[in-house]
Specification:
heterodimer, A: mainly alpha, 4 helices, elongated, B: alpha/beta, Double Clp-N motif, Rossmann fold, Helicase, Ruva Protein, domain 3, 5 domains, 6-stranded mixed sheet, 5-stranded mixed sheet, 40 helices, about 10% strand, globular
Chain lengths: ~120, ~900
């Protein structure tokens, strides 16, 4: 009785252990990637907020520093375009970084496999 | 149906015992057995082993890469790009590193999964209406790891004791092994070992069975209620702390055991709340730091539409900026007030005035608003705005009223043009009464009121209650602003507010603060610091107590705890209340009060007994807390010990004669001497009110009360009844910690005659009240004394003992000069007889001893006849002699 109990327990533990290992690659390309991508999206959102890019775009025709006369409006418009371009470039940089990270996530296991195979074959 | 924690429980055929909450039937079901628990634990261990192995391999991989770089540094340095192409090199170290990266990825997987599985509560499910198939919920699915562990232990405990039901007691015993719960009991200052011993005694008593134990309905209801508590608090999972306070309420025996250890439901709730507050504070802090980073750091809004405000910047302090950089304390428990401010502003009112007594937390509310603005968790019209405090003293300093007015106008117009500023003015009363151009000109406050009336600026101001009533109500400014009352928090609210400050205090002074210290700080500050308000006074008091504890810690490094005794010391420093009065250590002393008093007082047994009984009542807090500790009227001839008894009471009860405030009522014979007693509106301080305001703990001796003017006696009517008096400046002075003793010679002759005729003392007292006292004092005043005590004339026997006592005093003074005193019994008796005068009591005796003993000794000392080690002798004839000491 005690022996069979132990056997069942041991089997269950082993099943869970193997399950963990088998599930891991699947997880990497499904749940894991979704979670990672969500993090990148949140990072982009925060960067966008911190750069205030959308705020600048929304207010593109609103004069800066309360300068309501025509010259002020014109200068403001030009300044805002310059700002939007500069901030847009910055945002683009972060977008590229995020995309690169996502590509790394997706390709890392494959690259690892190739590199390992390359090493093993060479030995 | 049964009710637990406000939920109605019922038994359903399909899911068993449970309750309805948010349109779902919540039940608790978990099947446990010894083997399933063992398996679960084994699995957990295997999981941990797996994590550790993966970590070690991953670490070794990185080390091997580092080693490879180190070995090949010479040719890597010449071409650093080669490091990036390391995998092209065929080397065992590289191969091992590449293999180990799999373990890195595996660790990422495990971490992510663990973090995900720690989130047991799915708020998307709880925030929507349940679909048909979702209307039942098993609360067991929300339990976190720690609670799971508790569950297992309680099951194994019941199984070990062979008991068929897992009761609240089992659960509670298992809870005590949990780290969090242990911390709760450490905070409560309870020794876990004694509690465990008591519990186990009760647990062992139940009947034994071989059946597998099942969870009782009480335990199930606790788990369900705890789950609901955890969900309402937004926790990730249900934790042991959620369960703890429910246990107390669900089991009578358990609550009695805890009650015996001075733990009641409120205490457990408040400490559990403390844990929740700390958790909220730290998670709020993290979220706050994230959003604060996004708040613009300068005076501009995000879109740069604001206008620079140089004048305003010069005279102001940017609260949102301070909040962004974490310089403001977090605001706790004032959500209602903040919401009403936001509502008022949303309704189009441009001025909000926070009115509350100083110390109730007006500034804290303003800070709370600044923090919400930093997080942008405010309605649209406040988003991307700054909260700027105008520094009024800076605005008016070094400026004539007209310049000040100009400055304020400039600030207001800048604020209006900038469009992203909410003004804050602390203590707005400072703006009032400054007007340019003499009486005709506009007051500064009116300038602001006008701007507010035109809805040009948003302004949030604070003022304390007195100043509001005096200076702002019914002025233009008062009309222009909507008031929000900031009330003093209730006992439990105040405790929770103080709890939110504790971790900062603990960190600063490296002292552990117990829950009892916090509770005591609230209770004592409420009781002894009358002209200040919660929570500030409790915070200040606790801070002082922590400083005292920190000093003690420096002397004795094993004592890093701030307890309620430290709070008692702190309050004693702040108010002059003797510290030992505040702790329970003097109970024994009060039980022997009579004999203590009789060490200084001779005779008057009835009087002493009445006073002692009354003081014991007061000390055991059986008295009405809104009246003085005790009040007596002492009647009797002169020199029988009325004043002496008052002094003795002060010495015994307060620890020092100096706690006595003596008023000779013969100095208050005119109606206008009331001013001398309580002060007047011009600012002169009253003798009585000022003394008690500074030292609330005191004995007030009203000598010869019958001589005071009737108007003054009327003051005492209120004082004896309500325990308070309003002084000339309108402040309320509390007398609830004072003892009032009035003395009078009324009927002295009558007392002497009746005592001689051996009339009963009670009859004498009644006759005095009915026919003698009422001629000079109003009956309602006489009635308000706790006791009217008649002092008997002294007998010869009394006088003899008084003489002995007085000689003891002389002996003590002589001992300081190295001289002894020995008195023959017959000599003392002779002195006593000579000093005895039934009309004047012990007074003539004092004079006699001065003449016959002290004067003579003094002469001998001056003449050099009395040296150190000599002995003064009072012989049977009451003559003074000197016994010379042996020459050395």
């Amino acid at each position: 009785m005690l022996k069979s109990h132990f056997l069942i327990s041991a089997l269950q533990v082993l099943a869970r252990f193997l399950g963990n290992i088998i599930f891991f690659p699947l997880w990497w390309y499904s749940v894991g990637f979704v979670r990672f991508a969500t993090k990148i999206l949140l990072f982009w959102r925060d960067e966008q907020r911190s750069l205030g890019l959308m705020v600048w775009v929304r207010n593109i025709f609103v004069p800066m520093y309360g300068q309501n006369e025509l010259a002020g409006r014109l200068i403001s418009f030009v300044m805002r375009v310059v700002q939007i371009l500069a901030r847009g470039l910055m945002m683009l940089f972060w977008v590229v970084i995020g995309l690169v990270l996502m590509v790394i996530w997706l390709t890392l296991p494959l690259a690892l496999m190739l590199a390992t195979a390359f090493q093993l074959l060479a030995f | 149906m049964e009710k637990v924690a406000g939920l109605e429980f019922e038994n359903r055929s399909d899911h068993g015992y449970g309750a309805w909450w948010r349109n779902r039937f919540i039940y608790w079901q978990k099947s446990l057995s010894r083997s399933s628990i063992a398996l679960f634990k084994l699995q957990r261990r295997v999981d941990r082993a797996l994590d550790i192995v993966a970590f070690l391999v991953a670490l070794a991989g990185w080390l091997s890469l580092a080693l490879w770089i180190f070995l090949n540094q010479s040719h890597l340095l010449s071409d650093p790009i080669r490091i990036l192409l390391f995998w092209e090199n065929i080397h065992p170290l590289i191969l091992f590193f590449l293999l180990s990266v799999w373990f890195d990825l595996f660790l990422i997987y495990r971490r992510s999964e663990n973090a995900f599985s720690a989130k047991k509560i799915n708020y998307r499910y709880w925030h929507r209406e349940p679909k048909n198939n979702e209307a039942v919920f098993n609360a067991a699915n929300t339990q976190g790891r720690d609670l799971e562990q508790v569950l297992f232990s309680s099951f194994l405990l019941a199984a070990k004791l062979k008991q068929s039901e897992i009761s609240v007691m089992h659960l509670f015993r298992a809870l005590l092994a949990d780290q969090q719960v242990q911390n709760v009991f450490i905070r409560l200052g309870v020794e876990a070992t004694s509690l465990i011993a008591k519990l186990e005694r009760h647990l062992a008593g139940s009947t034994a069975t071989t059946r597998r134990p099942g969870f009782s309905e009480a335990v199930q209801s606790i788990f369900i209620a705890a789950t609901i508590d955890a969900i309402s608090r937004g926790q990730q999972s249900t934790e042991p702390v959620n369960v703890l306070s429910l246990c107390y309420r669900q089991d009578k025996l358990l609550s009695e055991i805890l009650y015996d250890l001075e733990i009641d439901a409120d205490k457990i709730d408040n400490v559990c709340e403390w844990f929740h507050i700390n958790r909220q504070l730290s998670s709020r802090h993290q979220a706050y730091r994230r959003s604060a980073a996004l708040k613009p750091g300068g005076g501009m809004d995000r879109a740069y539409t604001a206008v620079a405000t140089p004048t305003l910047d010069h005279f102001s302090y940017d609260l949102t900026l301070a909040a962004k950089y974490g310089r403001l304390d977090l605001c706790v428990g004032r959500q209602t007030e903040i919401n009403s401010i936001l509502e008022i502003m949303a309704s189009g009112q441009s001025g909000v005035l926070l009115v509350g007594a100083s110390g109730t937390g007006k500034t804290s509310v303003v800070n709370g608003l600044a923090q919400l603005m930093v997080e942008e968790r405010v309605p649209k019209f406040l988003q991307d705005k700054r909260l700027v405090e105008i520094d009024v003293s800076r605005l008016v300093s070094g400026a004539s009223p007209s310049v000040a007015e100009e400055r304020l106008l400039a600030c207001i117009s800048e604020t209006r043009r900038a469009g992203n500023i909410v003004l804050h003015i602390a203590n707005i009363e400072n703006l009032i009464g400054i007007s340019a151009g003499g009486t005709e000109g506009l007051d500064l406050s009116e300038v602001l009121a006008e701007a507010l009336g035109r809805r040009q600026v948003f302004c949030l101001a604070t003022i304390n209650t007195d100043n509001y009533a005096r200076a702002v109500e019914k002025t233009a400014l008062g009309e222009a602003m909507t008031t929000v009352g900031i009330q003093e928090p209730s006992h439990n609210q105040a405790i929770q507010m103080v709890e939110s400050k504790v971790s900062a205090l603990e960190g600063r002074y490296r002292i552990f603060i117990t829950y009892n210290a916090i509770e005591q700080a609230i209770l004592m500050s409420a009781r002894y610091l009358h002209d200040k308000f919660l929570p500030e006074k409790a915070i200040v008091l606790l801070q002082n107590a922590v400083i005292i504890a920190a000093k003690a810690f420096r002397r004795d490094p094993s004592q890093a705890v701030c307890t309620k005794e430290h709070v008692a010391l702190a309050i004693s420093e702040m108010t002059g209340v003797p510290a030992q009065k505040l702790t329970a250590s003097e109970g024994q002393k009060l039980l022997s009060l009579e004999s203590d008093i009789h060490q200084r007082m001779v005779g008057q047994e009835e009087a002493v007994a009445a006073v002692a009984a009354s003081l014991r009542r007061a000390r055991a807090e059986m008295k009405d807390v809104k009246r003085p500790i005790a009040s007596f009227l002492f009647l009797g001839p002169t020199g029988v010990g009325k004043t002496e008894l008052a002094k003795t009471v002060s010495q015994v009860y307060f620890g020092d004669e100096n706690y006595m405030v003596r008023l000779d009522m013969s100095e208050y014979q005119h109606a206008d001497s009331i001013r001398k007693m309580i002060g007047d509106i011009d600012g002169s301080r009253g003798y009585l009110t000022e003394a008690v305001r500074k030292k609330p703990f005191s004995l007030i001796l009203l000598d010869e009360i019958e001589k005071a003017h009737p108007d003054i006696l009327n003051l005492f009517l209120q004082l004896l009844d309500d325990g308070r008096l309003t002084d000339g400046q309108g402040r309320t002075i509390s007398f609830t910690e004072s003892i009032i003793i009035a003395t009078s010679n009324i009927g002295a002759l009558y007392i002497q005659e009746q005592i001689k005729a051996k009339t009963d003392l009670n009859l004498i007292k009644q006759e005095l009240i009915d026919n003698q006292l009422n001629k000079l004092m109003r009956p309602e005043l006489i009635n308000r004394f706790d006791g009217i005590i008649v002092f008997k004339p002294l007998t010869e026997e009394n006088i003899f003992r008084i003489a002995t006592l007085m000689l003891k005093g002389i002996k003590k003074r002589l001992a300081e000069k190295g001289v002894d005193l020995q008195a023959d019994r017959l000599g003392v008796a002779k002195l006593a007889k000579a000093g005895y005068d039934p009309k004047f009591g012990a007074r003539p005796l004092r004079r006699l001893l001065q003449e016959k003993v002290e004067d003579q000794i003094a002469n001998k000392i001056l003449a050099g006849e009395l040296k150190r080690r000599d002995t003064v002798i009072i012989d049977p004839k009451a003559e003074i002699g000197v016994l010379k000491a042996k020459e050395l």
